[in-house]
Amino acid sequence: MPTGTSLRGIGTGKFTDLIEPTGANAIPVVDPQNLSNDEKRRLKAAYIRLNPGRGLTERNIEITDDGRVLITGKRSGDTYKSYLDDVTTDLARPAATAEPTVNGTYEDKLSSTDATITGTGIPGATIKVTLQDNSVQNNPC
């Protein structure tokens, strides 16, 4: 059975010459090791768009937790394996454009007895909170 390669990706059967979304077609993602559902959907769509008529669907493209893209065909010999770091690019994280806001419980201030602190921040950012005992908590938005 013939075997093909593209970067580090490798295919067998009718997937020996599968085209990967690399270079200008690479998918920009926030964290290549933890793709969001939307990023996974866009990556699958890129494989399907770049390989028309090859029988690719969202159902036969799997993105694994260990950073691989696995594609299986209808025939058992049709497989393709690639790696997320070959088909994604790091999306620049936006710089903070505003200070996070804190919702006060007593007028516009927090009370020393507050068990919960709420507020807003930039989506995807981490807000660092220093408590009265000088311990620090990092909280994702």
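The above is record 1. Record 2 follows with the same two-line structure.
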Amino acid sequence: MCEWGSNKPWLWASDIGHSWRIGPDIGCNFDSTRVHPQGFTDIGVMQCIRLNEPLRKYAGPGHWNDPDMLEVGNGMTVNEDRAHFSMWCMMASPLILGNDLRSMIPQTKAILMNAEMIAVDQDAMGVQGMRYKTDQGLEFWFKPHFLESCIAHRVLITLSFPTRFLKLAMSLSNALSSVSYSLPNP
């Protein structure tokens, strides 16, 4: 359902639709808002994440918060594309491609066809991820996840502003129990 979140469809649309837009159209940018002369607005990846974050309780199997299509492969940096796709997967968002499939470069294809991240997005639990904590401008997002083998796993993704650098060590078998990170001195 596309009504740009104006009437809070997450409160009433689960009986009539499987997904609903939660805000304005996304633009091909990571962290900005653009108001067009024609009167419409598009927002960046980070703004979509901020709008979707408090709506996690309304998402689940058969009813999804939709922050809009993916802009992967449309002109952001490769790291922004990876972060964008990863966060859409963490938020259990519909993965609707907004790029031209005919001219997709291998790097874009690799991001969009990442089977592990797609499994995070489409796991049976359907739980939308949440921001677990923020530390020195670095965000830690958490999502419980069940694999086809019915083994419980946890997924942790870190999100930071472009000016910050991160060293992250993570065990794939149990992400939260073995995460370590360090931030360089500013």
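Helices lie at 45-52, 78-90, 106-112, 115-121.
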